[in-house]
């Protein structure tokens, strides 16, 4: 069983790049496609606490019902916002990665390098061609 878990959206380039960086370290993570298998309320609370994030820190506006639900309104409590994420998992920003070294919202994708237990095994470029890791496995 992998010690790394990624809450992943395969339609998201940042999420795909993050997954690629994890695999470039020689690890095969547990991949949770959170749109198909949303985390429970308790799991969300733990992820946020472990990452040191507020609920609003992980709310995604673009391509979601954020505006139509009026989620910018400060009247919503954290518990209510978590309920909206439960109903509409697309509201959760991604990817969130959990490793033995910590939990992070990995935006940008290279943020994952801070919590990977193993070094990079070679060069890695993002899907757009931007180099992230050189041939020696060092961050560019």
TrEMBL record:
Uppermost EC category: oxidoreductase
A Gene Ontology BP annotation from the UniProt entry: response to arsenic-containing substance
Record's catalysed reaction(s): [glutaredoxin]-dithiol + arsenate + glutathione + H(+) = glutathionyl-S-S-[glutaredoxin] + arsenite + H2O
InterPro entries tied to this protein: Arsenate_reductase (IPR006659), Arsenate_reductase-like (IPR006660), Thioredoxin-like_sf (IPR036249)
EC number: 1.20.4.1
Gene Ontology MF annotations: arsenate reductase (glutaredoxin) activity
Keywords, in A-Z order: Arsenical resistance, Oxidoreductase
Keyword Transcription: no
NCBIfam families in the record: arsC
PANTHER family: ARSENATE REDUCTASE, ARSENATE REDUCTASE-RELATED
Name of this protein: Arsenate reductase
Gene designation: arsC
């Amino acid at each position: 069983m992998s010690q790394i878990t990624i809450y992943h959206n395969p339609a998201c380039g940042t999420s795909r790049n993050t997954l690629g960086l994890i695999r470039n370290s020689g690890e095969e993570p547990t991949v949770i496609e959170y749109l198909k298998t949303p985390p429970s309320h308790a799991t969300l609370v733990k992820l946020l606490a472990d990452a040191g994030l507020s609920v609003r820190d992980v709310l995604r506006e673009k391509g979601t019902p954020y505006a139509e639900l009026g989620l910018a309104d400060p009247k919503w409590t954290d518990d209510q916002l978590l309920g909206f994420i439960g109903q509409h998992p697309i509201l959760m920003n991604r990817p969130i990665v959990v490793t033995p070294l910590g939990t992070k919202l990995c935006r940008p994708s290279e943020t994952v390098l801070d919590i990977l237990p193993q070094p990079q095994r070679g060069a890695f470029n993002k899907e757009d061609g931007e180099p992230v890791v050189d041939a020696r496995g060092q961050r560019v």
